[in-house]
């Protein structure tokens, strides 16, 4: 599993 | 973007529109917790001020601006023109008891030890519990206007769909965000009692009243 590099959700 | 997240965001947007309609149509903010609204404004400012230096998409930017602007408008209205209709005597939840632990948790749990990341964590933890003053007010009064319950239902629905979105994203893109997941789980769980009454009474055409 990966963690996205930045917060793309609101 | 997937359908669960999109509908969740639109429900969040709808909840604020419902709140604005309630305040505008009745010229009153009775039954709405001022504390919860101030906490949401704090949540949005702590999380969305990155709109100035962090571009994700037009959609993302629009939503951030919308949430900060409308939350500011709601707080402004409750401080000014609608001040006298506030349910002050029922809005007695001690906000310190949720802001301080949220700040502490943010200092302990964050992705990176930077100001913006700690603010992001703080906003996520605070959002999870920011509804508590509102639920407390509801419990104190024992009843609510139907439009207020629709506002809360849209807010709760938004959170519930985010859980579905995370399950979907985990399996489709391996997306993991433990901080948001834990906070989101707590946030959604807080709506369980409310949803029970909402589904068994309001959606059956009856008044929202606690037993």
3D structure, described in words:
The complex is a heterodimer of chains A (10) and B (211). Helix content of chain A is 0%, strand content 0%. Chain A is low in regular secondary structure and 10 residues long. Chain A is elongated and about 15 Å long. The mean pLDDT of chain A is 76. With 211 residues, chain B is mainly α. Helix content of chain B is 70%, strand content 2%. Chain B has helices at residues 3-26, 34-48, 58-79, 96-108, 115-129, 132-141, 146-173, 178-189, 192-200, and strands at residues 143-144, 208-209. Chain B has a two-stranded antiparallel sheet with strand order 1-2. In chain B, α2 (34-48) packs antiparallel against α3 and α2 (34-48) runs antiparallel to α5. Chain B starts with a helix and ends with a strand. In chain B, 36% of the residues are buried.
Helical residues, percent of chain A: under 10%
Helix/strand order of chain B: HHHHHHEHHHE
Count of DSSP E strands of chain A?
0
Question: Percent of residues of chain B in beta strands?
Answer: under 5%
Record the strand order, biggest sheet of chain B. Answer: 1-2
What's the oligomerization state?
Answer: heterodimer
Shape of chain B: globular
Taken as a percent bin, the fraction of beta residues of chain A is: under 5%
Structural class of chain B: mainly alpha
Count of DSSP E strands of chain B?
2
Shape call of chain A: elongated
Uncertain regions spanning at least 5 consecutive residues of chain A: none
**Biggest β-sheet of chain A: count, sense, barrel?**
none
Distance between the termini of chain A: 21 Å
Derived from helix and strand composition plus strand pairing, the structural class of chain A reads little secondary structure
Distance between the termini of chain B: 41 Å
Rg of chain B, rounded, reads: 17 Å
Helix share bin of chain B: over 70%
Which stretches of chain B are poorly predicted, pLDDT < 50 over at least 5 residues?
A: none
Radius of gyration of chain A: 7 Å
Q: Largest sheet of chain B, if any?
A: 2 strands, antiparallel
């Amino acid at each position: 599993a990966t963690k996205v590099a930045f917060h793309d959700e609101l | 973007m997937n359908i669960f997240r999109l509908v969740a965001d639109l429900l969040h947007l709808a909840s604020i529109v419902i709140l604005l309609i309630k305040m505008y149509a009745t010229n009153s903010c009775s039954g709405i917790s001022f504390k919860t609204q101030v906490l949401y404004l704090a949540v949005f400012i702590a999380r969305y001020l990155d709109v100035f230096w962090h571009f994700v998409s037009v959609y993302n930017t629009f939503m951030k601006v919308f949430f900060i602007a409308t939350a500011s408008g709601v707080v402004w209205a409750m401080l000014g023109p609608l001040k006298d209709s506030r349910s002050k005597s029922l809005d007695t939840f001690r906000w310190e008891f949720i802001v301080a632990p949220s700040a502490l948790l943010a200092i302990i749990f964050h992705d990176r030890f930077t100001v913006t990341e700690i603010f992001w964590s703080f906003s996520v933890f605070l959002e999870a519990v920011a509804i508590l003053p509102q639920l407390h007010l509801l419990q104190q009064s024992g009843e609510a206007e139907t439009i207020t319950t629709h506002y809360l239902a849209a807010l709760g629905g938004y959170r519930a769909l985010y859980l579905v979105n995370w399950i979907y994203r985990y399996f489709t893109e391996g997306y993991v965000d433990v901080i948001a997941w834990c906070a989101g789980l707590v946030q959604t769980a807080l709506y369980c009692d409310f949803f029970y009454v909402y589904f068994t009474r309001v959606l059956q055409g009856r008044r929202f009243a606690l037993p």
